[in-house]
Structure formats: C-alpha cells, structure tokens
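Protocol step 4 of 6: structure prediction from sequence.
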Amino acid sequence: MDEIKLFDRWQTGGIKVNDSGLVSYINLDPVIVPRSGGRHAKHQFHKSKLNIVERLINRLFVAGHKGRKHKFTSGQNVGKTFGASKIVVDAFGIIEEKAKTNPVEVFVRAIENSSPIEEVTTFRKGGMTSREGVVTSPQRRVDLALRHIAQGTFASSVKSKKPAAACLADEILFAFKGDMKSKAVSEKHRREKEAHGSR
C-alpha cells in the first residue's frame, strides 16, 4: 500500500516536532486533502486534532487581530477553500524548490521558531491595573505563530504585485531560519522582550 502523502506530494509520517511542549499540538497525521469540514469547530481545544497544514489554510481566511483591531477587513480574506489551499500548495512548491527539502518539515520548524514562550497579560489587582509576564500555553503558542505567519503574508501581498503564495513562502522560510525579516519571528521577540521587562 502506498504511503499517504499531503496533497499527494509530501510525506508527513517521518517528521518529528523538536519542541517537546508543542508535540501534542502540531498534528502531522497523514492526510491527502487537509479538510475536516468543521467537524471539530464546536469542541473546545479540538482544533489541535486538525492537521497543522489545514490550520494554516483556515488561518489564511481570517488573519486575526493586531492589537484590538482587525489586521485586514474580512472582505479581503474570504473566499473558497480551494483558493486558500492553492496558495499553500504553491507556497510549499516554492519552499521545496528553494530549500531542497520537505516543505512540511520547514513549516513545522518555522512554527517552532516563531511561537512565543512568554507574553504580557493585564489583570486588576485591588483597584489598579497590573501587567505581568506569564508563560504562554502550548496551544496559544501555535495559534499565535499561525496568526503572525498569516498576517505577515497579507501585509506583504495585499498592496503588492507579488503573489500571495510567494509571500507565504518567504514568510515561512524566514521563520524557518529565525530571520527577523519574518513578521512571526519579530513579533515573537517583541512579545518576549515585553514580558521580560514586566517581570
């Protein structure tokens, strides 16, 4: 029996998550088409059961908030799943060509490099508001990494002639290398620096 490959092109079976805190939250179960049809949407924390590539596709629809405002209006993000999937497939093809290795593994390393370990939270203590650095939960680490990768992709493609797939490929490759040119990596360092200053 042939091994199941993502999009019938890339293997996921032999890829290991090096960050022990994220092992349970980066799902690399072999699937051909990463599309669950929202079957886990109503169950808390069940999004970790989705293939990590499907979570990236879903995140491209809504890049998420930056501060208290939407980074982009939803009108620029909505569309068919086929369109978002094609962006990811094309981006993985570019990554494979540039890095000469499995793009899914590059993507996993990019998530590990861009997931913040600590951040600042605000809470009320007595009658005053206090900010304090806290350790980020593993699932939120993955959520933030995916959000910042999507936001970095849209920021570099929304008013540019450069295709979204090329922008996504660059964002993932920069995060894979730990380069500060990556929106996700720079945001990770910003959050951790802010948390360190609040201790």
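Step 5 (inspection) to follow. The helical segments are 52-61, 81-99, 103-114, 138-157, 164-177, 183-197.
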